[in-house]
Amino acid sequence: MIGELIGGRYVVEDLVGTGGMSSVYRARDNVLERQVALKILHDRFSGDPEYVERFRREARAIASLNHPNIVTIIDRGELGRHQFIVFEHVAGENLKDVVRRRGPLPIHEAVALTTQVARGLAFAHDHGVVHRDVKPQNVLIDEDGTAKVTDFGIARAIDPGDELTETGTVLGTSGYIAPEQASGRRVDSRSDQYSLGVVLFELLTGEPPYSGDNVMAVAMKHLHEPVPRVRERRGDVPASVDAIVSRAMAKRPEDRFPSTDDMVAALEAAQSSMAADLSEGATGVLRRGDGRRGRPARRRRLISPLVAALAVVVAGALALVFVVTRNDGGAGAASVGSVKLTAVRDYDPQGDGSEHAEAVPRATDGDPSTFWTTETYDTFAKPGVGLILDAGKEVEIEHLQIATDEPGFTAEILAGNNSAGGFVPYSEEQEIGSRTTLELAGGASYRYYVIWITDPNRRAHVNEVRAG
Fold first, then answer.
1. What are the C-alpha distances in Å from 262 to residues 142, 247, 259, 387?
2. pTM reported for the whole predicted model
3. Who contacts 304 (Cβ-Cβ below 8 Å, separation ≥6)?
4. How far apart are CA 402 and CA 437, in angstroms?
5. Of the candidates 386, 397, 391, 406, which has an alpha carbon nearest to the alpha carbon of residue 442?
6. 361-378 pLDDT, tens per residue?
7. For residue 70, what are the β-bridge partners?
8. What is the DSSP code string of 384-424?
C-alpha cells in the first residue's frame, strides 16, 4: 500500500498499526496538504457484506460524534477493492504504549486521562452509540495530553433497529470485556463503563486485573472471579478512586453507575479531592521528547511571600526566580518577574453577564486546588465567555500559562486597556490541556488580558493562570 493514491487524494506514507479487520496508515491529503490517518479494510474481508457493512457503520457512528475526546472522521469511500475511512491524524501514542513505557501512572494522571475518556464515551452514549471495545490501545494521547477515543469498528446503536451482531456473538477484547459481553448477552453503555474501569485499573497498577493462558481463560475470569481491589496492589490509591473502579467493574450492569455521565461526575469529584497534587506538578500532560518523555513536569512548590527564590543556573549563568504571592485584598495574584496578573472579573457580554463572579479570585490565588468555573452548558450558542486578568499596568506579555483540572475546553487570549470591553484577539485559539502555555501575539502592551473560552466542553475550570 505504501505510495498508493487512495480516493484520488490520499497518498499512503507508512503503516501505523494493523488489526484483525483493518490496517491503519499515515497518509498525506494532497488536497488540504495535511497528514491524516487512513484506515483500510483488509482485502480478505472486502467481499464479505457483513464486514463491509460493519466498516461503513463505524464511519457513520463516528461521523455523528463531534467531541474533543473522540477522534474526528474526515472522509469515507471505496476504490476498487479498498474500503477506507479517513480520520484526523493524532501525533502521539496510545495508552497501552504509555503504560508499557512508564509502568503505573501517577494517580492524578491516571484519573485525569480516564476522565477524558469517560467524557468522550458519555458523549457517544448520549448520541446512541456504544463502543464495545474500550481498551488502552483504542485511546490515543496527543502531544498536549488530550485523550481521544478511536476505533469504533464494532460499535452499535444502543437501540438498533437492525443489528448486524445478534445476541450470542462475542466481540471485544478479552482483557477488557464486560461479563455480559463475554457471555454473548446484550450490551449497553454500562458495558463500556466496565471496560473503562479495567483501563483505569491498568493505568494505576501497570497491568489489567485478570491474566490467563489464553483469551477464553481471561474472559471467564471477567465472568466469574471477584473484582480485585486496586488498593490491594497499590496502597496509595485513594479510597474514592478504588471505589470508582470497583463500581464500574461490578459484575451486574445494574450495580454500575446509572449512566456514564454519573461515572464522569464521580471521577471529577475524585480529581477535586486530589487537586492539591497540582501544586506538586500533577498535570497529566504527556509530552514527547527525551528519555524522560511522558513524566509530568514538576511544578515549584508554593512558598511564602516572605521567602522568595529558587535559582536555577543553566550553562553557567541563568537565574530564574518564580514567586507565587497572595493579595491581602482577596483577589489572588500570580507573578513572574515584574509581571503580575490578578483575576478581577468574569466576562459574559453575550449572555446574562455573569459566570460565577464569586469564584474569580481563585484563578490567581496561588492555590491550584481552587478554580474559577464557567456555567455548565449542554449547548453553547454564544461566541464565548471569559475571565479578565489585570496586569496592573500596560505590559507586553509573550506567554500565558493555564492550569486546569478539567482539560478539553477551547480558549484564546484577548487583550485591551479597558476592563469594560473592546478587547482584541491576542493569541491563536487552542484546546487547553491540564497545563497549557499559549503563545501571545506580542508587539503591543496592554493592561488587561482575557481568557476567552470559545467552547467550554460543557464546563471549563481555570485553576491557576500566570504570565511567563
1. 26, 11, 5, 28
2. 0.55
3. none
4. 6
5. 397
6. 999 998 888 899 999 888
7. 149
8. -EEEEEEEEEEE--SEEEEE-SS---EEEEEEES-TTS--E
Domain ranges of the chain: 5-88, 92-280, 322-467
88 burial class (0-12, 13-18, 19+ CB within 10 angstroms)? middle
Q: Do residues 267 and 244 touch, judged by C-beta distance below 8 A?
A: yes
Q: Where are the beta strands (DSSP E) in 202-359?
A: 322-325, 333-336, 339-347
Catalytic residues: 133
Asked if 116 and 147 touch (Cβ cutoff 8 Å), the reply is yes
- Which residues does residue 88 pair with via DSSP β-bridges, in sequence order? 36
Q: What radius of gyration do the chain's Cα atoms show?
A: 24
Query: In angstroms, rounded to a whole number, what is the distance separating the alpha carbons of residues 82 and 373?
Result: 48
Q: Are 153 and 161 in contact (CB under 8 A)?
A: no
Asked if 436 contacts 379 with a C-beta cutoff of 8 angstroms, the reply is no
Q: How far from chain centre, in Å, is Cα 326? A: 31
Phi-psi region of 463 (alpha: psi -120 to 50; beta: other; left: phi over 0): alpha
* Residue 118 pLDDT > 70: yes
CATH architecture of 322-467: Sandwich (2.60)
Query: What 3-state DSSP class applies to 70?
Result: strand
Q: In what order do the strands lie in the sheet with 139-142?
A: 92-94, 139-142, 147-149
Cell readout for 240 is 474514592
Q: 468 versus 189: which is more confidently predicted?
A: 189
What does the pLDDT look like over 289-336, one tens digit per residue? Answer: 333 223 333 333 333 333 333 333 333 333 333 333 333 333 444 434
Closest CA to 55 of 72, 78, 89, 80: 78
Distance of alpha carbon 418 from alpha carbon 447, whole angstroms: 8
d(CA 200, CA 376): 26
Domain made up of 92-280: CATH architecture:
Orthogonal Bundle (1.10)
In contact, 173 and 222? CB cutoff 8 Å:
no
Would you identify the CATH topology of the domain 5-88? Phosphorylase Kinase; domain 1 (3.30.200)
Per-residue CA distances from 270 to 107, 120, 258, 305, 359 (Å): 10, 18, 18, 30, 20
Residue 47, SS3 per DSSP? coil
Query: Which residues on adjacent β-strands are paired with residue 388?
Result: 345, 450
Rounded Cα distance, 125 and 261, in Å: 9
- Look-up of cell digits 464511519: 59
CA distances, 417 to each of 302, 423, 425, 446, 457 (Å): 30, 8, 13, 5, 29
